[in-house]
Amino acid sequence: MTLQTALAQGAKLLNEAGVAVPRLTAEVLLAHALRQERIYLVAHANDELTELAWIHYGRYLHEKIRGKPTQYITRRQEFYGRDFYVAPGVLIPRPETELLVEAVLNRTQPGARILDIGTGSGCIAITVAKESDARVYTTDISATALSIAQRNATTHGAIVQLTRADLASAFPDQCFDIVISNPPYIPEADRKNLAKEVRDHEPASALFAGADGLDIYRRLIPEALRVLKPGGLLALEFGVNQSESVTQLLSAWHAIEILPDLSQIPRIALALRPHRSHPPSVPSFSYDIR
Ligand code: GLN
């Protein structure tokens, strides 16, 4: 069987199974079975498929039809121009998150110390480390995530300090210039409406955050207040319809900016840490309680 025929058959199977963009998906899976880039298929359309490639291809098609995200089959996702290794156990990086990274890169001072909370594949921390001269630290509560992030850091030659910890708990007060995070933010109530591919395959711990999706922000924002230097920047991604609630949770912060994603949905919050972390409890004297 030629590559061309294999492609046509694969696309037909995917199409019948209701998979979106069947032809492109078949191309991606066939290229992966051949351990080649997709462009290879064009020049080699009339080559014969080897027995081994055929076995791989058949398995990938089967996995895809059963609902596995393509990126977990090919084990890769591009993010900010780099290929990241991904596997079940980490969230597949999304294009919205590139905007979060870009917003931070535009506001990074030379030599800044940056903490990425909940690194998953490491896409945020590694990109920031490669695109700036910042000293980048990152945490995740999941050992699987940390080992995947480490693998990506090594592949890209990025210097990132990875720590297994809940949020910023491993770090002392006021030691960062910037805290960045794309935490889990989907409300439990939305679980049933989520695409099956996402719900059944991506890690629940990377997706959901309590009844209203705000549980992590409720803990993360005070933690960021603690570890940021006065005037430091907090940059957060949030979900659909969460702009107001997140702004409210940031009410003690300064210079709040909300940025939209490519679909014009409010998606990113930026805020500066106030110089005082709490209002003085007795309003008669003004103390510097830093
Ligand atoms: N920081 C990682 C990403 O943006 C993981 C995020 C998560 O698991 N919620 O892809």
Cofactors and ligands present?
glutamine
Structural class: alpha/beta
**SSE order:** HHHHHEEHEHEHEEHHHEHEE
Q: In the CATH classification, which architecture of the largest domain applies? A: 3-Layer(aba) Sandwich
Detail the poorly predicted runs. Answer: 279-290
Classify the beta-strand content into a percent band.
15-25%
Strand order of the largest sheet: 5-4-3-6-7-9-8
User: Care to count the β-strands?
Assistant: 9
Shape: elongated
Mean pLDDT: 94
What is the class of the largest domain in the CATH system?
Alpha Beta
Give the count of structural domains. 2
CATH superfamily of the largest domain: Vaccinia Virus protein VP39
Number of helices: 12
Percent helix: 25-40%
Walk me through what this model shows.
The protein has helices spanning 3-16, 22-33, 40-43, 51-65, 70-74, 95-105, 123-131, 143-156, 196-201, 204-207, 215-227, 243-249; strands spanning 76-79, 82-85, 113-117, 135-140, 160-164, 176-181, 228-237, 254-260, 266-272. The chain is an alpha/beta fold. The chain folds into 2 domains: 3-66; 87-272, 3-Layer(aba) Sandwich (Rossmann fold), CATH 3.40.50. The strands form 2 sheets. It has a 7-stranded mixed sheet, with helices on both faces. Strands 1-2 form a two-stranded antiparallel sheet. Strand 4 (135-140), helix 8 and strand 5 form a beta-alpha-beta unit. It is elongated and about 70 Å long. Bound molecules: glutamine (GLN).
